[in-house]
Design a protein that fits this description.
Distance between the termini: 16 Å
Number of helices: 2
Structural class: alpha+beta
Shape: globular
Mean pLDDT: 87
Strand content: 25-35%
Radius of gyration: 15 Å
Oligomer: single chain
Length: about 100
């Protein structure tokens, strides 16, 4: 199920022929969910994975981060997703999200 929303590039809405461009937005939604903290999404105050809390976290905390991402995805309707966080630092962010079979 693809979702569509305003196309954003570098945090700016894309406009073409004096109209806002609409495009598939699943990646954008997932990235927003990963970065959001509780309370940032007014309609759903308990949604978000709080990514900035896990920057440079020890490896044993990355499993909790994976769980937080999975919970945020489920709350937004992305069911059966497998989340693997290999690395999450200020310089490198390696998060893989797959459809689970």
């Amino acid at each position: 199920m693809a979702r569509y929303d305003f196309l954003q590039l570098k945090n700016a809405i894309v406009i073409s022929d004096n109209d806002i461009v609409i495009a598939e937005s699943d990646q954008q939604h997932i990235q927003d969910l990963i970065n959001a903290h509780y309370g940032w999404i007014r309609e759903f105050p308990l949604t978000g994975a709080k990514a900035s809390d896990y920057i440079n976290a020890p490896a044993n905390n990355l499993a909790k981060f994976e769980g937080d991402i999975k919970t945020a995805l489920k709350s937004d309707g992305y069911l059966n997703k497998k989340v693997i966080v290999n690395e999450f630092t200020t310089q490198s962010q390696d998060i893989n999200i797959y459809d689970q079979d």
